[in-house]
C-alpha cells in the first residue's frame, strides 16, 4: 500500500459565513477572479466559498481568519470548525482544474479541506473582495447556484449543523440585532428550519427561556403597531421557566 506524504496532499480551509437580513438567511460567497495572465476563459469562472490553502507553519484557526480577511475583508468574527472533507476527487473536476492551473503551483494535488462556519450580523460587516476573489456578495440560501469544487456539499453540511445547534445552543441569536422582536426571531427560525412554525406555541416556548429578556422598549419608526423588544442574555442560566 502506498501512503500519502505531506508533499502529496494539501490542506485548505473553507469558510461558510451566514447572515440574516430580517427576512432571509444569507450566505457569503465570492466570484473567482481571472488570472493576471488572462489565459482563462471568463465563462469558466465560478462562484465559491471563501477558502484557500493553509500556509506552512499556520494553524487551522489562523488560516480561517486569514482567508476571510484576504478574500472578503471580514475580520474579528467568530469561526467554528464543523467538518472535514477529504474525497480524493473533490478538486479534480475539469471545471475546477482550469481555474486551479492559473492560481496553484500543484493544481492536481489532492486537497483535504477543513470547514468553518460563522454567524454574523450583516449590518456590522461590509464584505469587500480582494486577492483571487473579484467580488464578495451575500446570496439568499434558497438561491445558491452550483458552486466550485464540492462547496455545495460543504454548505449543505453547514446548514445541517446550524439547524441542529439552533435549538441546542441557541446560536441563532448571533444573527439578530442586539434588540429584536419575537416576530423577527420566529422568521429567523422558520428560515433556517425551512418550515412554518405555529406562532402561539413558538412564543410560548421562547418566553420560557431565561436567556430571552423582555425590555421596556418597543420598535420605533415602523408603520405597523410597534412590537415589544427583547434581548438575549448569554450569561443567564440555560433553563426553561416553569409556568
Please explain how this structure is put together.
The protein is of the alpha+beta class and 243 residues long. 26% of the residues lie in helices and 26% in strands. It has 5 helices and 9 strands. It has helices spanning 60-72, 94-103, 151-168, 182-193, 199-207, and strands spanning 9-20, 25-32, 47-48, 51-53, 80-85, 110-120, 133-140, 212-218, 228-232. A hairpin with a 4-residue loop joins strand 1 (9-20) and strand 2 (25-32). The radius of gyration is 21 Å and the shape is elongated. Residues 1-5 have low confidence and may be disordered.
Q: Topology, pairings included?
A:
Blueprint: E1 9-20, E2 25-32, E3 47-48, E4 51-53, H1 60-72, E5 80-85, H2 94-103, E6 110-120, E7 133-140, H3 151-168, H4 182-193, H5 199-207, E8 212-218, E9 228-232
Parallel strand pairs: 1-6
Antiparallel strand pairs: 1-2, 1-4, 2-3, 2-7, 5-6, 8-9
How would you describe this structure in keywords?
243 residues, 26% helix, two-stranded antiparallel sheet, 5 helices, 9 strands, 7-stranded mixed β-sheet, alpha+beta
